[in-house]
Amino acid sequence: MTKRIAILGSTGSIGTQTLDVISHYPERFQVTALAGGYNVELLAEQVRQFRPKLVSVATRELAEQLKATLPYSPRIVYGAEGLVESAAASDADSVVTAVVGSQGLQPTLAALEAGKHIALANKETLVSAGHLVMSLAKERGLSILPVDSEHSAIFQCLNGEPRERIRRITLTASGGSFRDKTRAELDGVTVEQALKHPNWSMGAKITIDSATMANKGLEVMEAHWLYELPYDRIDVLIHPESIIHSFVEFEDSSIIAQMGLPDMRVPIQYALTYPDRLPTPVGSLNLAELGKLHFREMDQERYRMMRYAYEAGRIGGTAPTVFNAANEAAVARFLRGEISFLQIEELVERALERHAAIFNPGLEAILEADAWARGEASQS
Ligand SMILES: NC(=O)C1=CN([C@@H]2O[C@H](COP(=O)(O)OP(=O)(O)OC[C@H]3O[C@@H](n4cnc5c(N)ncnc54)[C@H](OP(=O)(O)O)[C@@H]3O)[C@@H](O)[C@H]2O)C=CC1
Ligand SMILES: CC(=O)[C@@H](O)[C@H](O)COP(=O)(O)O
Ligand SMILES: [Mn+2]
């Protein structure tokens, strides 16, 4: 049967790879909605190729521009409302959430309200309001399948085993672009250096998060919500090769790990075809050629974002929302050249210190905490 798919963030790293996966199985998938941001040239190409009925862009002007270039007339919407509409208003069965940042939250909630399954790449959504998203999905009987490589790995390792059998899970971390630098050597590193991830080709924001280790912090919180595990049963281990994508230790001391070449098309495809496994153009992993794999303890002093993430996760309520939003604002400032690399974590730490968490927050309290944290992290 054909699966109808809407993609939020179709012009980004995950979005384009999702369309690549879909293009290999035209009989299995139909694209019903595409939402991009500012890159209308690429979006126009995608629209011409996949012919969705609904398209969203960042602004009204871009919507006009897009309309003028298309050979047919899909419905074109724009802005934050357009994103929500593209998540909920098409006849998609599943929505791939691949926009960056907590702007993905309201579209994800709208998609669930409209009865759509979620293939979740946008981890900021779960960090910001995991309780709202997970409870809505549960209430509606909808699945949230992980696209993030570590969470896909855990999902595959669990293979339906109940939570009670899990002793702990371990998320692997590449160590990011500065993994061979000491803390002192981080003083004065450039945006260009930070954007060179050793193993993965990804969008700018997540690449910086990987370098600060905020990405792994967000992933710890994402795992907490997806697998309903307390923080003391979620570990992180540095694994520079990114070949073991994560692993689960079960009650009987067996460890099951998921391995493969670092290529996001594998977890993206699995989230779209689950429970089926279909061929991908990704090659086979040759362990003999690789020879060795390496592992290092996570040092929370070297990577302070790791410590702040565990602290925020354990506090709960709006603390993770603040961790995430302060980080988003600080990373944007770093990318604009306004602050140094080490100031990212200083701004996140300060926002967390100044925040009095609200527990069991509704959507309004989440949005308020998010806006407050962005304001905090925008001041030096
Ligand atoms: N890249 C990866 O390998 C992985 C990514 N993820 C997660 O997936 C998400 C996406 O990451 P990634 O693909 O790397 O990010 P990119 O920066 O490559 O892509 C982001 C997407 O969001 C769109 N977007 C940005 N702002 C807006 C806006 N205001 N309105 C509508 N759309 C907007 C962009 O549109 P445009 O470019 O047209 O402006 C683009 O399509 C993140 O949450 C990330 O953490 C998780 C695991 C791996
Ligand atoms: C590909 C993916 O899932 C990223 O989230 C990846 O985890 C980033 O690599 P790090 O391990 O460096 O954070
Ligand atoms: Mn990941």
Describe the structure.
With 380 residues, the chain is an alpha/beta fold. The chain has two domains: 3-146, NAD(P)-binding Rossmann-like Domain (Rossmann fold, 3-Layer(aba) Sandwich), CATH 3.40.50; 165-261 and 298-377, RNA polymerase sigma factor, region 2, helix turn helix motif (Rna Polymerase Sigma Factor, Chain: A), CATH 1.10.1740.10. It contains 16 helices and twelve strands. It has helices at residues 13-24, 40-50, 60-69, 79-88, 105-113, 123-140, 149-158, 191-194, 204-212, 214-227, 265-273, 287-290, 304-315, 319-335, 341-354, 363-377, and strands at 3-8, 29-35, 54-57, 75-78, 94-97, 117-120, 144-146, 166-173, 234-238, 244-250, 255-259, 296-297. The strands form two sheets. It has a seven-stranded parallel beta sheet, with helices on both faces. Strands 11-10-8-9-12 form a five-stranded mixed beta sheet, with helices on one face. Strand 1 (3-8), helix 1 (13-24) and strand 2 form a beta-alpha-beta unit. Helix 2 (40-50) packs across helix 3 (60-69) and helix 14 runs antiparallel to helix 15 (341-354). The longest helix has 18 residues, at 123-140. The radius of gyration is 20 Å and the shape is globular. The termini are far apart. The model has no long low-confidence stretch (mean pLDDT 98). Bound molecules: NADPH dihydro-nicotinamide-adenine-dinucleotide phosphate (NDP), 1-deoxy-D-xylulose-5-phosphate (DXP) and manganese (II) ion (MN). NADPH dihydro-nicotinamide-adenine-dinucleotide phosphate (NDP) binds at residues 9-15, 35-39, 58, 83, 98-100, 103, 121-124, 148, 200, 202-206, 264. NADPH dihydro-nicotinamide-adenine-dinucleotide phosphate binds next to helix 1, helix 6 and helix 9.
